[in-house]
Amino acid sequence: MTPSLRLRYDKGCELLLEYGDQGALGLEVTGRSKILSLSILTALNRLSGSFRVIVLPLFALAIGQDEAFYGLIVAMAGYMQSASALPAGILSDRKGRGIAILIGGIFMGYIYFLLPFSGDSFTVIILYALTGIGAGFNMTSVKALVADYTKKGDERTRSFGYTMAFATAAAIAGPFLGGFILDPIALPGISSEMTRYAIVFFIMGSLRVCAGIFGLGTEIWLKRNIPLETIEEDPLDELPTQDARNDAVTAGLFGISRLIMGFSSGLMIPYVILWIYSAFVVDPVVLGSLPAVSNLSLASGALFVGLRSERVGKIKMVTVLYVLAFLFTFGLLWSPFFLFMAVFYVARTAMANMAQPAVDSLFMGEVSRRRRGKSFALTRIMWTFPRQTGTLLTAFLLSVGFLGGMYNFGLVVFPIAMALYPVSVLPMYFAVKRNERLNGQSLEQASPLRTTA
Question: I need a surface site. Which of 33, 153, 299, 404 has the fewest CB within 10 A?
Fold first, then answer.
């Protein structure tokens, strides 16, 4: 018999330690420990990515390039993410979420290690474009893993809210720490600017590798302790809306929503920090504090959405948040003082992003588990490709001096871009209503079977 030590806590949290012939350590999963492990995984990925908000645009300027070059490298990475998302989703469905997360984490981390040592601008473009491959594997599989081990409805929405809130809170450190390391007055013993960038990219790469290893371990742990059969919904709920054809239609409609939002996001989001830098000349550490503070408000907002959107209604909640994000954009652009602008920046960022738990939960509940990775990959492709197209379009317009440069460009184009956010809700609404109608027909046909049983 395998010796074991079992510890119980008053609130139902149970820890089981088993020592087998090979010294294996097993941990029984509770609701709380499951959410904690998924939150840590999401946080590691989000923390690494949060450095880019400050580090990447400043890195482009540090190597003698301009805003257009920054837009180009972001777009190239996005196109590579689009190209890798579908293969990553298929691999995730067939071989497991953990394998895909591990591949993405190690590959992306290795590229980050190389990036500060690139010798010329062309090499920077190639290397940063390759990070998109890792992002394609990570993004698809992490969210699918959360959905796999949570039940449709309130539990899944709350889980997405908790994981996003935890990850966003962790991401506060990225922009602030990145801006601090890059500030000339920080770390006085390091005079070389490129050495400072090397330190930051090493931190980013290490976090990605850790996330990959932790992701594989998390899936193995969950598989051993939670049979997926206990998570699945009533089989009748999969007829007819969750066959392969209707999964494709649902993913396509959600993808159209992401396409609209992706293009509008690409026109604005990668350039907001550069616009602020041109409008208010501030030090990197101050600039880095803006995303850090906005992440704090976003964390609490994501938790609120995760807990309340089932009661309010996911579609209604997302619509209200996107309308507010559009309105707050005007405050960001026309504030006369940096402090006022910072308040609107934080508010706009929170409104635009805190809807994500509701959107993720809504989509994952509308497609079947066995095609979840591939379906989510399709929506990511339809998000990423137009987003990078919008980013490239902005880069081109800035390079030819459209509207006189970054400042005037933002005043005119940013509100137009944000106006598309509320419009993007319509295809999601049509997808949900379509599935509700088909489910209603299915239940009517199945009711005699239920009575007979």
Answer: 404
